Amino acid sequence: MGDSDKDIFNGLSVSHGLLRSKRYVPAERVGTITEGRVELDLDADAFAALDDHGEQPPSTTIRADTTGL
């Protein structure tokens, strides 16, 4: 979550398994992020207590027409 153009990181939407609901983890609780691994500053009970992070609102990418006029 955030704005990559402005280098803003708010947090992550994390699931503790394929069929489990996603939880929102605020940036201040995110530790190290490496390829294939994210470490959180939470134990299992604290993770379970996080708010559900529902579906993201729909978004659209709009690009300028580059085919020429």
Q: What tags apply to this protein structure?
A:
two-stranded antiparallel ribbon, elongated, 69 residues, mainly beta, 7% helix, single chain
Brief account:
The protein is built from one helix and six strands; from the N terminus they run ββββββα. The protein has one helix spanning 44-48; strands spanning 2-3, 8-9, 11-15, 22-26, 30-34, 37-40. It is elongated.
Describe this structure in words.
With 69 residues, the chain is mainly β. It has a domain at 2-48. The chain is built from one helix and six strands. The chain has one helix at 44-48, and strands spanning 2-3, 8-9, 11-15, 22-26, 30-34, 37-40. The strands form three sheets. The chain has a two-stranded antiparallel sheet. A two-stranded antiparallel sheet has the order 3-4. Strands 5-6 form a two-stranded antiparallel ribbon. Strand 5 (30-34) and strand 6 form a beta hairpin.
Q: How many helices in DSSP terms?
A: 1
DSSP helix fraction: under 10%
Strand order within the widest beta sheet:
1-2
- What's the total count of β strands? 6
Largest sheet features: 2 strands, antiparallel
Order of helices and strands: EEEEEEH
Mean pLDDT score, rounded? Answer: 77
Rg over C-alpha atoms, rounded to the nearest angstrom: 16 Å
State the distance separating the first and last CA atoms.
36 Å
Which secondary-structure class do the elements indicate? Answer: mainly beta
Low-confidence stretches are none
How large is the share of residues in beta strands?
25-35%
Gross morphology: elongated
